[in-house]
Amino acid sequence: MQQRPAAEQIIFSTKDSSGKIYIREQKGYFQVIRRSINTVLMLIFVCLPWLNFQGQQAIQLDAAQQRLYIFGRVLLPQDFLIFALLFTLAAFALFYLTKLYGRIWCGYTCPQTVWTLMFVWLERRIEGSHNQSKALDNAPWHGAKLSKKLAKHSSWLLLSLLTSLAFIAYFVPARSLYADFFSLNSSGTVYGWVGFFALCTYVNAGLIREKMCLHMCPYARFQSAMFEPATKIVAYDAQRGEQRGARKRHSEKPAAMGDCVDCQLCVQVCPVGIDIRYGMQYECINCGLCIDACDQTMRQFNYPVGLIRYQGEVSTQTAWQRHLGYGSAILLTVLAMAAWAYQWQSTELSISRDRQAMYRVNSDGLTENTFTLTLSNKTQQPRHYQLSIAGLAGAELKGAAQITLKPAEQRQHIISIAMPEQAAEVYTAFTLQLTDAERGDSVSAASRFYHVR
Predict the structure, then answer these.
(1) For the segment 251-270, what is each residue's pLDDT rounded down to a tens digit?
(2) pLDDT above 70 covers what percent of the chain?
(3) CB burial class (10 A; 0-12, 13-18, 19+) of residue 409?
(4) How far apart are CA 346 and CA 103, in angstroms?
(5) Has residue 166 got a pLDDT over 90?
(6) Quick count: other Cβ atoms within 10 Å of Cβ 388?
(7) Taking the domains of the chain in order of start, what are their residue ranges?
(8) What stretches pass through the bilayer (predicted)?
(9) Which residues have a Cβ under 8 Å from the Cβ of 101 and sit 6 or more positions away?
């Protein structure tokens, strides 16, 4: 009978992960939840690039032009503050979730876990159960083994390729990507990136698997700093389960035995190969597969379920104290995103003066300043604008006052402003206004007009 280590030995533990982990398939309540969440996320990931809005791909990142097209809007590099805020919000939300429920992100929504379990599903369909797969690996090479290995790795490579294409569709128009790729009409750049991400998917989900979670993912290392006694994590009820040991079904439980029948199912279904009965370990990704396996065994022996379950201590803090820190950070980030969205404009105008000369006197005896305007149409429709000056009495605008910008166009426009000499002033502040001829909204930029002294 295996003895449980002393409490001081099981706060955190590591495992020998040098060998391959053969994950046993498991059905149950938490597996249904995971698959439902993963199905929704996968559908969003694959289908979103195919969604059209106003005749254009709804979401596309043009890396060459440094533009993000998103539901009829165009975000330029200067608009990417929203992504910094979005990532900040995601980080705080992840930390908040970790504080409440441990590494539940890793167990239910992390792409590494999602793709690893998909690859395992393919492995089980081709090689059989986890024991059959292990026996196949240990068997000498023969025709049946070779065919199964080829079939498994081919299916992994196909899934990796489709995953890579789905990802690249966010950068290359989806409606032409697949046809061009399989008809060999895509560029070398597209083939290179598709191959790179397909290889990453194949290695991470098929070959590395839990090694990524155990040794390469930084989140696994620092997540424990966000735990508190009330954090709900997957835990084994040692008081109820010990002493553990095998016994027959439908027979009386020996008086000295606990509810754990030492079936090892909780270890066999674990994606990272740990034994949850040895206490909290940093490798645990809170996936709940061991809970489903244990509950299944408890039902077979007519024992109460919940020997392994999500549990945490009663918090010593009030509800508002427990949620105040990360909750406040999330709220402030959301408010910052709302403020950014409120001030965002679909047209952008900036002005800079000619660096060669502050002013000149033209043939009509007027003082003339030259400016370069940078105009951006951040929509996916053509826009027509009217240029006007405010704050310069008697000023004459030389250069096109009516400007048309193509969808997502950004270009420079040179103008000159001329006005009679103002001997009393060195410069006069003014505002240049760009008004949308159809919509009526406008943007403005301020500068200074320098006079002859």
Answers:
(1) 888 888 999 999 999 999 99
(2) 95
(3) middle
(4) 40
(5) yes
(6) 14
(7) 22-75+110-208, 81-101+219-344, 347-450
(8) 32-51, 80-97, 156-178, 190-208, 324-342
(9) 231, 232, 233, 286, 310
Three-state secondary structure call for residue 442: strand
pLDDT at 12: 43
Residue 423, pLDDT score: 60
Tell me which residue has tokens 């040179």: 414
Tokens standing for residue 366: 């007027």
Share of the chain above pLDDT 90, in %: 55
Exposed/middle/buried for residue 180 (C-beta within 10 Å: 0-12, 13-18, 19+): middle
**Could you give the angle at which helices 174-182 and 188-201 cross, rounded to 10 degrees?**
90
Whether the pLDDT of residue 16 is over 70: the answer is no
pTM of the full predicted structure?
0.82
Token pair in block for residue 400: 């096109």
Q: 347-450 has which fold?
A: Immunoglobulin-like (2.60.40)
> Burial, 237: exposed, middle or buried (Cβ in 10 Å; 0-12, 13-18, 19+)?
middle
Q: Give the span between the Cα atoms of 350 and 264, in whole angstroms.
A: 67
Which amino acid, 225? A
- Residue 314 phi, psi dihedral angles, 5° rounding: -70, 130
How many angstroms separate the CA atoms of 202 and 102, rounded? 28
- The H-assigned helical ranges of 102-228 are 104-108, 111-127, 130-138, 143-168, 174-182, 188-201, 210-211, 219-222
